[in-house]
TrEMBL record:
GO terms for molecular function: ATP-dependent diacylglycerol kinase activity. InterPro entries: ATP-NAD_kinase_N (IPR017438), Diacylglycerol/lipid_kinase (IPR005218), Diacylglycerol_kinase_cat_dom (IPR001206), Lipid_Phosphate_FormReg (IPR050187), NAD/diacylglycerol_kinase_sf (IPR016064), YegS/DAGK_C (IPR045540). This is Diacylglycerol kinase. PROSITE patterns: DAGK.
Length: 296
């Protein structure tokens, strides 16, 4: 493996932590003998193009510095290649890093771990989801949670995470079941009423909400969590259990496993790795061993 590696940086991640994190991470990597170049993600399309150039040029690894959104952008450059992904997790969610036992909000420690793991070839192949030409590592969300994202993205006030708390309260006031049409693998189309449907390549999203708590990164399957029709009171009771994954035993919740899922619902947007994919209908496929990840 070449000793030249690439830092892929989001300077706005974690309210500016991305830019600050690059320096200690790069310092740890250089101390370990690696030559480090940096691609800054001030513009997503341009940054992705430069990341793809680095991968095509034979960089030894692409190190995403930021949160799950930056990891997701890196996946677009890395999926299906032999170039390993390292993660310096300094964003808000950092679910993908947690899946793989990587340090969170400690960029120097992450840099040292990545250096040691690259030298020791400690690299794990993991599955990814793919919807059209978009790859994702965590969860494809639709329904109540994507409506909260839609509303929050339209709001100009308040700012920060409080915006999405307010958006959640407003969506809760407007809670209603969503008619879905779902197809698992090559089975029949099922028509259901649901509050949300989450397609998990991994177990969590949103900074530790274990919506697909039993999902595995290396089984070639999605865990598809369906929260059926429920009242505001029921949703408020179930929601805190999502952080422990104990919501899966609630009667309103069902879980399916499939390698492919198609979702259709009017007026609903899909979000993968916290980023907007587009309106339903969407089809997602689980792609085994689609990316190589640097792990402890």
């Amino acid at each position: 493996m070449t000793s030249e590696i690439t830092l892929f940086v989001n300077p706005t991640a974690g309210r500016g932590r991305g830019a600050h994190a690059a320096q200690p991470a790069a310092g740890a990597l250089r101390e370990a003998g690696f030559a480090v170049r940096t691609v800054v993600g001030e513009d997503a399309d341009a940054a992705l193009g430069r990341a793809r150039e680095a991968v095509a040029g034979g960089t030894g690894a692409l190190i995403a510095v930021g949160g799950d959104g930056m990891v997701s952008l890196a996946l677009q450059a890395l999926a299906g290649t032999d170039t390993p992904l390292g993660v310096v997790a300094v964003g808000t969610g950092n679910d993908f890093a947690r899946y793989n036992g990587l340090p969170v909000r400690d960029p120097a420690a992450a840099g040292r771990l990545i250096a040691e793991s690259l030298k020791g070839s400690r690299i794990r192949s993991v599955d990814l989801g793919r919807s059209g030409d978009r790859w994702f590592g965590t969860v494809l969300a639709s329904g109540f949670d994507s409506r909260v994202n839609d509303r929050g993205n339209r709001m100009r006030w308040p700012t920060g995470r409080l915006r999405y708390d307010v958006a959640m309260l407003l969506e809760l006031a407007d809670l209603r079941p969503i008619p879905y049409r779902i197809r698992l693998d090559d089975g029949p189309v099922q028509e259901i009423e649901a509050t949300l449907v989450a397609v998990g390549n991994g177990p969590s999203y949103g900074g530790g909400m274990r919506i697909c708590a039993d999902a595995q990164l290396d089984d070639g399957l999605f865990d598809i969590t369906v929260v059926g029709e429920c009242s505001r009171t029921t949703l408020l009771k179930v929601f805190p259990r999502v952080y422990r994954g104990t919501h899966l035993s609630h009667p309103a919740v069902t879980v399916h496993r499939a390698a492919k899922v198609s979702l259709e619902a009017d007026g609903i947007t899909g979000y993968a790795d916290g980023e907007r994919v587009g309106p339903l209908p969407l089809t997602a496929e689980a792609v085994p061993a689609a990316v190589r990840v640097v792990v402890p």
